[in-house]
UniProtKB/TrEMBL annotation, chains A, B:
Organism: Glycomyces endophyticus
Domain HTH marR-type: residue ranges: 16-152
Protein name in UniProt: HTH marR-type domain-containing protein
UniProt superkingdom: Bacteria
InterPro entries: HTH_MarR-typ, MarR/SlyA-like, WH-like_DNA-bd_sf, WH_DNA-bd_sf
Length: 157, 157
DNA sequence: TTGATTCGTTAGTTGAGCTAACGTTCGTGT
DNA sequence: ACACGAACGTTAGCTCAACTAACGAATCAA
């Protein structure tokens, strides 16, 4: 039986019962699978998850400072610098000093950025479909709801 | 609104709709919360998740070579070395050369190791309860089942 | 006007996951 | 009998994400 490399949670008898009870292990392994699926799908177009997150925030909420983007994306201010550099290099955002507050930059999505966002979104729609393929619509909604409740619960502790 | 540090998935209007649709984002953030919860609970007794996994395998399946442990735990052979060093330092396992195959070590759990396993398991039982607190037994089973199906699906691609 | 706070940035840390290479040992085929 | 490939434990290193610390510049509050 060769199993290495796979992130399969349950190998039947080969998996100790104690491990099968750990929700954090199941969630972690599944999360890793999902994350890898997304990264592999984005790689061919040279995009990263952070690009999607930042462009989505800018498109929906309008121009914002880097600190505001960080707050809304849970990307650290320190890491956001490199992400914005990449997005600016692609012409997908513009980084300009804020005339009203010289500490701030104003980040604005460009038309190219909106096109890029649509491109990435299309890829991720496919990823979601791949991931959720075994579940019917009702089950997908259940999974979102259950995980959402756990997440909200753990966030307020 | 101060939100930093939290891994809350949904901030209402502040969260772009596009992000709320990403199952991998929700799963990833929730997984990170769970993982942190577990690590914080294990820290006071100086234990790591890998300790639990290895001890559980040894307790359930009996003495094994390092390669066999790696196969059953998805811990890489290279990383397993340090984990076993720590477990040996604590007296929880014994690492001895295999007389039948001089390439191998035979790893055996000790009585102390079984006690340690019980200690860690008790902590993780509490972690599971904390994580799953907002869900009733039926919902917990559903979450396991849904994630398990997604995991199995993604594992065979 | 002094002092605390915010902002963008650089640098560095930690941990998990993963690859490469090496010497040793074993199994197989010839 | 012996060469060759594979498996073993180990060391080293890589990547990526999450996170912390510190800094100069700018702003805000006392």
């Amino acid at each position: 039986m060769e199993t290495s490399g796979e992130l399969r949670f349950d190998y039947g008898e080969a998996t100790p019962e104690r491990l099968k009870r750990q929700i954090s292990r199941l969630t972690g392994m599944t999360s890793a699978q999902m994350s890898r699926t997304a990264s592999e799908a984005l790689a061919p177009i040279g995009a990263h998850k952070a690009h999607f997150v930042v462009l989505a925030v800018l498109d929906e909420a309008g121009p914002a400072s880097q600190a505001a983007i960080a707050d809304r994306t849970r990307i650290y201010r320190s890491d956001l610098v490199a992400v914005l550099n990449e997005l600016a290099d692609g012409g997908w955002i513009v980084r300009a000093p804020d005339p009203d507050d010289k500490r701030r930059n104003v980040i604005t999505i460009t038309d190219g950025g909106r096109a890029r966002l649509a491109e990435i979104e299309a890829v991720l729609d496919g990823v979601n479909e791949t991931i959720l393929a075994p579940l019917d619509p009702g089950e997908r909604a259940q999974l979102f709801a259950l995980l959402g409740r756990v997440n909200a619960h753990l966030a307020q502790r």
